[in-house]
Amino acid sequence: MSVVVSRESLLCPPGWAGVVTLDGAILATVPDAGLIEPLRGVLLHHLGESGIDLARLPARLPVQDTLGPATLAYLDAGHFAAAHADTEVERLPAGHPDVRALLASVDEQGAGESGMEKAASAVCVVRDGQDVIAAAAYRPWLDMAAHVSVLTAPEHRGRGLARRVASATVADAMANGLLPQWRARPEASRRVARALGFQEFGAQISVRWSARVTT
Question: Which of 158, 193, 198 has its CA nearest to residue 74?
Answer without folding.
Answer: 198
